[in-house]
Amino acid sequence: MRQEEVSTVSGFLYVQERTSEDARLAALQDLQISGGGPEETLDRMARLLKTSLGFPVGYVALINLDRQIIKSRLELSVCDGTRAGAFCSRTIDMSTPLIIPDTLQDPRVSTLPQVRSAPFIRSYWACPLTTHSGFNIGTLCVVDFVPRFPRNGDDAILRDFGRLAIEYIELRAQVSTDPLTGVQTRRTFFADGEHIFESCRSRRDALSCIVFDLDYFKAINDTWGHSMGDDVLRMTGNLLRKELRSDFIIGRVGGEEFAVLLPSERLDGAFRLAERLRCLLEGYASPSCPTITASFGIAECLASDRSINDLIERADAAAYTAKAAGRNCTFPRVCSSPAE
């Protein structure tokens, strides 16, 4: 009986922790900052912080489900890219700055490869980036190769820069996000898309694009009213943000047109995802809502592409072909697997 009680309580605590982590990841995704490579403003903040504190290295990192995402320019490899191997995964559990004067003396980080071997990081100071809703999405941090003990006022400097960084991230989300759908505006989507394009090209990684247009949207507005049209757009944005990975870039690129960039995905993966989204949209109908369908186009980055525009234009042309072929389908059809 006692063992069952402990098991029940443990299970409850696990569910609570899992729910909290899911909410943190949702907050990170809502900010639409995970993709797109380094941010110039965050890079500038990291440089100013390291100069203010006299450290050789400063950087901004975000922590998603299983990866650390560096959002400032960093020539030094501070970890292997995994969440488990990152200093910052320890910081996001804190409500105050984490200052580790000597990494070799702190059991939380003393066994990490970047401590025991090159680049031999010996001190780590970081401030969690806490949203106004109370979620720690990442860190602003500095590291050194010798032990560093804080002086009077260093903690306040670290906090102030941390507040500036999260204020910028949240303000960026407000001006970069379409207020109706919660996805990126066209301008931000194309700007971040160019970063993704260059990053994937430099790594010789795959990159695909989905473009889709809601079918008969004018008829929805004319028959059901513009408030229903807004609800359909809002629902579409919510669906995309819920169903897609956090490193995918989502944008509203036209009135009823959306686009998604898929790093590391080839054309067959883009097709499967497009079909799944198409089926989810179609299955949303209810007595109080019109039937929603969409025409999807997909494309994969080619060696001849000069910019992200070339990729998106091919996906857009494919969506136009899908619409001309009768709507509510994906073009080109590259596999026959059912939508997952």
The CATH superfamily of the largest domain is known as GAF domain
Distance from N terminus to C terminus (CA atoms, Å) equals 42 Å
Element-by-element helix/strand order: HHEEHEHEEHHEHHEEHEHE
Query: Can you list the strand order of the major beta sheet?
Result: 2-1-5-4-3
Would you give the CATH topology of the largest domain?
Beta-Lactamase
Please estimate the helix content: 40-55%
Number of helices: 10
Summarize this structure briefly.
With 340 residues, the chain is α+β, with helices and mostly antiparallel strands.
Structure description:
Helix 2 (40-53) runs antiparallel to helix 5 and helix 7 (217-224) packs across helix 8 (226-243). It contains 10 helices and 10 strands. It is elongated. The protein has 2 domains: 2-176, Beta-Lactamase; 186-331, 2-Layer Sandwich (Alpha-Beta Plaits). Helix content is 44%, strand content 17%. The strands form 2 sheets. The chain has a 5-stranded antiparallel beta sheet. It has 340 residues and is α+β, with helices and mostly antiparallel strands.
Record the SSE blueprint.
Blueprint: H1 2-30, H2 40-53, E1 57-63, E2 68-70, H3 88-91, E3 98-100, H4 113-116, E4 123-130, E5 136-144, H5 154-176, H6 186-203, E6 207-214, H7 217-224, H8 226-243, E7 249-252, E8 257-263, H9 267-282, E9 294-300, H10 308-324, E10 330-331
Helix pairs in contact: 2-5, 7-8
Notable characteristics:
340 residues, alpha+beta, Beta-Lactamase, Alpha-Beta Plaits, five-stranded antiparallel beta sheet, five-stranded mixed beta sheet, 44% helix, elongated, disordered N terminus, disordered C terminus
